[in-house]
Design goal:
Layout lengths: L1 E5 L6 H14 L3 E4 L10 H11 L2 E2 L3 H4 L12 H13 L2 H7 L5 E4 L2 E4 L15 H8 L6 E4 L6 E6 L2 E5 L9 E5 L13 E7 L4 E7 L3 H10 L4 H9 L2
Parallel strand pairs: 1-2, 2-3, 5-6, 6-9
Antiparallel strand pairs: 1-10, 4-5, 7-8, 7-9, 10-11
Helix pairs in contact: 7-8
Length: 239
């Protein structure tokens, strides 16, 4: 089976449309969304509606949960907090109720899907380095765990007691993996192109897809909404 895994769309309609157009060409068997549909960019309602209709599984992200548990936003950065308040003003009530139905994790086909980390998924911890990856490998039994949250694509490979960071490729079926697919709507690895992952269970192969989109349009919409200028500028730089 071929899985397309997307994450962290963050109300960026321009990026989502380009992403899904590419996925339509690939025709995967399953489309999984790891959450964070809202905040930062300008079109949360449009993004939620599309994701609801297109994805086979949708995981709850912390920015999504903050739309019904306001205490989560208290821990956000200043710009994230402002964008969360803005989303509260514009989001449709039916989508808040929809978020309340979503789960923190999903398991199928020896694959584990979470928004942030397999260790306490509801706490939205980051998996940023080998040390945090080690803790997280102890928290799931499946061959591969897919994550988002940091907006930075990376693959952690566990071989016995060793953990390494590797490049996307044909994977070793004797090893286990934590794969961050990056972000569709707000990449933060210095590359402004949107990011998502493709995993072939038969070949045990992972591909990271990067695509350009109309970043200026998405950026201009952020400014028009009155959101912080930094949120518009960071899209252009991929930070």
């Amino acid at each position: 089976m071929i899985y397309a895994v997307i994450s962290d769309i963050h109300a960026n309609l321009e990026a989502l449309e380009v992403c899904l157009n590419e996925i339509d060409k690939i025709k995967p068997d399953r489309l999984i969304c790891l959450g964070d549909l809202v905040d930062y960019c300008a079109q949360p309602n449009e993004v939620i509606e599309i994701i609801k209709n297109r994805c086979d599984v949708i995981i709850l992200g912390n920015h999504d949960e903050a739309q019904f548990d306001y205490s989560l936003a208290d821990g956000f950065s200043a710009n994230a907090y402002i964008s969360s308040l803005h989303t509260r003003k514009v989001i449709k009530q039916e989508y808040i109720e929809y978020f309340e139905t979503l789960l923190y994790s999903h398991l199928e086909n020896d694959l584990f899907f979470v928004h942030a980390s397999p260790y306490m998924p509801e706490k939205y911890k980051y998996v940023l380095d080998i040390e945090t990856a080690k803790i997280n490998f102890e928290s799931f039994d499946e061959k591969v765990c897919f994550i988002g949250h940091s907006h930075v694509p990376v693959i952690f490979e566990q071989s016995g007691n060793r953990i390494n960071i590797i490049e996307p490729s044909k994977l070793d079926s004797s090893c286990r993996y934590i794969i961050n697919v990056g972000s569709v709507g707000q990449p933060r690895d210095g590359n402004p192109k949107l990011s998502f992952g493709l995993f072939d269970t038969d070949k045990f192969e992972y591909r990271l897809i990067r695509l350009g989109y109309d970043i200026k349009s998405a950026s201009d919409k952020i400014l028009k909404e009155g959101l912080p200028e930094f949120l518009a500028m960071r899209l252009l730089a991929g930070i």
